[in-house]
Amino acid sequence: MSLTPGLDRSASTDESALLEVCNASTTFATDRGSLRAVDDVSFVIKRGETLGIVGESGSGKTVLSRSILGLLPRSGVLQEGSIVFDGTEIVGAPDKLMRAIWGAKMAMVFQDPMASLNPVVRIGRQITESLRLHLDLDRSEAKATALSLLEQVGIPSPKERLRSYPFELSGGMRQRVMIAIALACSPKLLLADEPTTGLDVTVQAQILDLLSSLQKERHMSVILVSHDLGVVASRTDNIAVMYAGKVVEIAPTATLFSSMAMPYTKALVDSTPRLSQPSHLRLSPIEGRPPDMTTARQGCAFAPRCSFATDRCRSETPPLVTSPSNPLHRFACWNPLNSISIGESS
Ligand SMILES: Nc1ncnc2c1ncn2[C@@H]1O[C@H](COP(=O)(O)OP(=O)(O)OP(=O)(O)O)[C@@H](O)[C@H]1O
Ligand SMILES: [Mg+2]
C-alpha cells in the first residue's frame, strides 16, 4: 500500500476498519548500528474493537504504539510502510495534521501518570485545557464536562478533586485522571501502554474494568499494551504477540488461548502469574534473553530459546502464515504447537 502522507482516504476505506497497519517498520540509528524496533508489522483494528499487544520487555510494543501515534523522535528514525488511521496516513504526516488528531481522535494513557501529569497544575485545569483546545468550550462548559468525566471514571468527591494537585491523589486515582483526560474529546482510538503496571492487583483490575466499560459505552477502539498475557486475556477481542519487533502470532483472543501456535506465546503464558495458581507453584520464566536487535539474524529470532527449534528454524525466517483452521489466526513458526499435537506440519 503506497499512500501520500496526509492523504484523506476516508471515502475508499472499509467503514469498519479504523486502523490499518501495513508492513510498518520503525528503525533507529544508534551508536551500535541500525535497530529495527518494529519489523514489518501488519494488522487491522475495527471500530469498537480492542487489540491486546503483548511481548517481553524490548519486543517493540511501545515503539509500535508511538509509531501509530506519530510520536517518535524527530531525527535518527526511519519509518516505513503505512499506518492509516480513520482514512489518514500517519507515516510521514505533518505535525499540524498530527496535532489535530492527538487528543481529539487518538488519545493515550501511559504507564506513569506522574510523568504525564503536570505536577504544579490542578487536576481540573489539566482536563479543561484539552477540552477548550479541541472542543472550543467556554470556561464553565469545560468545567462541567471535566466534572462529569471525573464522575465517569469513578473518582469520589469529583468537585473537590478538580482542585487537587496530582501528588494529592493515589496512584490508581491518578491513572483514572489520565483516563479522564484521554477521554475528554471522545477519541476513536485509545492507546493504553502498560496502564496498570506498578498498581496493586485489585486497583489494576478496577482500572482495566473501567477502561473496558468506557470502551463499550463509547464504541471506542482500544490498543491495550502489556507484557502480561493475563492482563489482556479477558479484555480484548484480538491479541498480537510481539517478539524482536515482529508480530509473531495474532488471533482472536479465544483462539489464541485455545489453539496457540507459537512456542513463544506458550512460554509467555507459562511465565504469567495467575490468581488461581497456588503461590508455592513456581512460574517458568522464559530461559535465555531476547536477541540483540542491532545484529543481523538468520532464521527465527526465538529459535535460540525454543525447545522445538530445528535446523530450519535456525536458518530460515518463518513467514507469518494463516492458520488452516482459522483465517483470522496468523503465526510465524515452522513447528507450530497445534501441528505438533495433532500430527500435522505446515
Ligand atoms: N529512541 C530510541 N532510540 C533507540 N532505540 C530505541 C528507542 N526507543 C526504543 N528503542 C529500542 O527499541 C526496542 C523496543 O523497545 P520498546 O520500548 O518498544 O519495548 P517494549 O516492548 O515497549 O518493552 P517494555 O515492556 O520494557 O516497555 C528496544 O530494543 C529499545 O531499546
Ligand atoms: Mg514499553
Write structural notes for this entry.
- The chain is of the alpha/beta class and 346 residues long.
- Helices cover 32% and strands 23% of the residues.
- The protein is built from 13 helices and twelve strands.
- The strands form two sheets. It has an eight-stranded mixed sheet with strand order 6-7-8-3-9-10-12-11, with helices on both faces. A four-stranded antiparallel sheet has the order 2-1-4-5.
- Helix 8 (201-218) links the parallel strand 7 (189-193) and strand 8 (221-226).
- Residues 28, 30, 35, 37, 55, 57-63, 73, 227, 293 line the site of adenosine-5'-triphosphate.
Q: Roughly what is the average pLDDT, rounded to an integer? A: 87
Distance between the termini: 28 Å
Cα radius of gyration in angstroms: 21 Å
Spatial strand arrangement across the major sheet: 6-7-8-3-9-10-12-11
Oligomer: single chain
Order of helices and strands: EEEHEEHEHHHHHEHEHEEHHHEEH
Ligands (ions, cofactors included): adenosine-5'-triphosphate, magnesium ion
The profile of the biggest β sheet is: 8 strands, mixed
Count of discrete alpha- or pi-helical segments spanning 4 or more residues? 13
Which residue ranges are poorly predicted, with pLDDT under 50 across at least 5 consecutive positions?
Answer: 1-14, 340-346
| Structure class | alpha/beta
Helix share of residues? Answer: 25-40%
| Beta-strand percent range | 15-25%
How many E strands? 12
- Form type: globular
